[in-house]
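Appendix B. Chain record.
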Amino acid sequence: MLRPLGKVKELVEAAGMGISYAYDDLVFLDNNDFLMQFSDDSKIVFIHRNSDADADEAAEGVSRLKKAASAADDIEIVDGVFYTLAQVEDYSISIKFHE
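Structure tokens predicted for this chain:
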């Protein structure tokens, strides 16, 4: 499935942020307060919040991203769930999504 990574990159940059890594359907942002996930609908992207992030900073970042998406009018950012990151034995990262 083709995902609109270029459009998401433009939104992220318009919100004053950067992308640190993209893998499959996930887009990790530089600040790690949240990550974005492509949905099956190319116009909808979920935003998941890091449960370890400062709630006020994360909310402000999500607001900036949603404003950028609203101005671009071709992608909708939808609230997702919380997630936590953990390093596993082989130095890879485990992501756990939860409510």
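Further analysis of this model is presented in Appendix C.
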